[in-house]
Write a structure and sequence with these properties.
Shape: globular
Structural class: alpha/beta
Largest sheet: 4 strands, parallel
Low-confidence stretches: none
Strand content: 15-25%
Helix content: 25-40%
Length: 105
């Protein structure tokens, strides 16, 4: 059983304190993935990393179990992404349905 409440009530503070990622790091990660890769960001939090991968043009599944983290205005749920999934188990079930092979990050 996972603790989905660890960041409940703390998402705003986390979003303000969490540093971003250098463009070079995102470019490097994307260069490791096969062409047209589908990414899976496990523990996406407020979506700082997820948004950068999405901006690169890649499709990304954001997986974040904490509702407060997903609901933050500048979070994963407010980005233009096809899916926001709250648990890895649900992701794996959907992944099987869509037939995608994600590049886990």
């Amino acid at each position: 059983m996972i603790n989905t409440n660890g960041f409940t009530g703390k998402a705003q503070a986390y979003a303000e304190a969490r540093p971003g990622y250098p463009d070079e790091a995102i470019e490097y990660i994307c260069s490791l993935a096969p062409k047209n890769a589908v990414f899976a960001d496990i523990g996406a939090g407020t979506g700082k990393f997820t948004s950068l991968i999405a901006r690169s043009g890649s499709k990304i599944f954001a997986i974040e179990p904490n509702e407060d983290m997903r609901e933050l205005p500048h979070s994963v749920s407010s980005m233009k992404m096809s899916f926001l999934i709250d648990t890895v188990t649900r992701f794996l079930l959907l992944n099987r349905s869509f037939g995608t092979k994600p590049f886990f990050i």
